[in-house]
Amino acid sequence: LKEIIFDVIELLAAETGQTPVNPTKISPQTLCKAVIETMEPLASLKKQDLIVDASKISVMADSKIVQNVLRRILHNAIKFGEENSSIVLSCLEFEEGKVQFSVENEGKVISKSVIQRILKPFSLNEDVMNHSKGLGLGLSVCQALLRRHSSALEIERSSSKTKVMFQLPEA
Fold first, then answer.
1. Sign of the CA dihedral with 32 first, then 38, 24, and 101 last
2. How far is CA 96 from CA 25, 148, 169, 171, in A?
3. Do 118 and 162 meet the contact criterion of CB atoms below 8 Å apart?
4. Other C-beta atoms within 10 Å of 161: how many?
5. Cβ(92)–Cβ(166) under 8 Å?
6. Residue 145 and residue 11: Cα distance in Å, rounded?
7. Any idea what DSSP says for residue 88?
8. What is the per-residue pLDDT across 89-114, written as a single tens digit (0 to 9) for each?
9. Are strands 86-95 and 49-54 parallel, antiparallel or unpaired?
10. Per the count of CB atoms within 10 A, which of 92, 108, 134, 146 is most buried?
């Protein structure tokens, strides 16, 4: 219950512009490694390998916010990913002046309509997502936090993989 309350407060604060943003020059390599370390115990329960592919390009962003977003996305990738699979956290040059963060995992195919719904607060599709835990706030919080950085989540899916990504300005 405490976690749900914190998620709702965090969502409301970000949506109303109350979340402070302190952009600094940050290293994606350091950021990604820190996030991976916190998520490795969860991934090991499903025998999933967490792989980092991060360039040395710096980004201008709030480190705490980006770590929070990456942890949430990675948590979903672990939770909905296949056992004995790999999850790749990438941070690579996207286009001039932009760096793309992405998390790719193997799992069930997600339809376009489900993707649109799961990006909205309190939306669950238990048939597709195979869970009944939580309130469907994780990706909504990510969206709200990324808007504070003039960014947004994008989700691509294929027959066996899901890729969640966002871009931030290069420092």
1. positive
2. 17, 21, 9, 11
3. no
4. 16
5. no
6. 8
7. E
8. 999 999 889 999 999 999 887 777 77
9. parallel
10. 146
Structure tokens given for 167:
């871009």
Separation between Cα atoms, residue 108 and residue 125, nearest integer Å? 13
The Cα–Cα gap between 63 and 60 comes to 9
Please identify which residue in the block is written with the tokens 């600094």: 24
B/e letters for 33-72, b = 16+ CB within 10 Å, e = fewer, are eebbeebeeebeeeebebeeebeebbbebbbebbbbbbbb
Could you read off the pLDDT of 114-149 as tens digits, one per residue? Answer: 777 776 765 554 444 444 455 567 888 899 999 999
